[in-house]
Design brief:
Elements: E1 5-9, E2 29-35, E3 38-42, E4 45-49, E5 53-57, E6 63-68, E7 73-79, H1 81-85, H2 93-104, E8 108-109, H3 112-131, H4 139-164, H5 172-187, H6 194-200, H7 205-216, H8 220-238, H9 243-249, H10 255-266, H11 270-275
Antiparallel strand pairs: 1-7, 2-5, 2-7, 3-4, 3-6, 5-8
Helix pairs in contact: 2-4, 3-4, 5-7, 9-10
């Protein structure tokens, strides 16, 4: 159980999060930032977290911690997805988990009192994880009860947010940009063709790039390349995959095409970049 759920604080958070390069987390996690500031790069987007903020870190997304306060106060709750799916909860776990992921995929600020309640629930969970033995009477039930309290509170916060903001107003250009970024984050490993995304959005490639240039400051091709290059760095730094396997994952014709792409973007070969993270 102690490996299924892990609680980190500001004192040991860097045992789980890495700084200085993109990487994939080994397990999903939720960051509860009560006080302080953290800047995180999520794929190609920089997110600045401040007091009373939540964010979910997913294993399928590349993250990079850019900077953080030395005087933060936080909890990072790392968990096994399988454990969450097997909890006995009075709601549809898959539906609620998807909803939580949707709302917490960016920084999500809550009221101070709400964060204090989260902290109390997580403190209880941490106490039992650290002070009880897994074979102790009712240990599993106690941990499940504490974890359920955190998840019920999260579900309530997310439901309240959905009711409060059922339809956030955006311009058409903002809507296109958001849809494009969401599609690229889901499909950049399968297709790097601008035409592919333009067709899905029922736009011409030229119009799509023009909209993105106006709203995000980059063309469609530049944004897609940013996703690919960031993922390449994450795979090189946080996995043992060979260059051929990474090339295959990112839909390059072979490792030489991948190496050419990587060197063009970073002026380093993939192996030179990877050697920086060897012990």
């Amino acid at each position: 159980m102690k490996n299924i759920i892990r609680i980190f604080t500001q004192n040991n958070i860097l045992e789980f999060l890495k700084t200085g390069h993109p990487y994939h987390t080994s397990d999903p996690a939720i960051l509860f930032l009560k006080r302080g500031n953290i800047s995180i790069k999520k794929q190609i987007n920089e997110i600045n977290l401040s007091d009373n903020t939540l964010i979910l870190l997913d294993v399928d997304t590349a993250y990079e911690v850019l900077k953080f306060d030395r005087h933060m106060e936080l909890f990072l709750m790392v968990y096994s997805r399988d454990y969450i799916e097997n909890l006995t909860l009075k709601f549809n776990r898959l539906s609620v988990y998807r909803n939580i992921r949707s709302v917490l995929r960016e920084d999500f600020q809550i009221a101070e009192q709400e964060m204090l309640a989260f902290f109390e629930n997580i403190k209880h969970l941490r106490f039992f994880l650290e002070n009880y033995e897994s074979g102790q009477t009712y240990y599993s039930e106690i941990i499940e009860s504490c974890m359920s309290s955190v998840l019920y509170q999260l579900a309530g916060v997310v439901q309240h947010e959905n009711e409060k903001n059922p339809n956030k107003m955006m311009t058409r250009a903002q809507e296109i940009s958001l849809q494009f970024l969401k599609m690229v984050s889901q499909h950049f490993k399968e297709s790097t063709s601008v035409n592919f995304y333009a067709e899905q959005l029922h736009l011409t490639s030229r119009h799509l790039s023009s909209v993105l240039k106006d709203t995000l400051g980059k063309t469609a091709h530049q944004i897609i390349s940013d996703f690919v290059s960031n993922e390449a760095k994450a795979l090189l730094s946080s996995t043992q995959k060979t260059l051929s396997e990474i090339a295959y994952d990112l839909n390059f014709s072979d490792q030489y095409a991948f190496s050419h792409f990587f060197k063009k973007h970073f002026n380093l070969s993939p192996n030179q970049y990877r050697r920086q993270f060897k012990d």
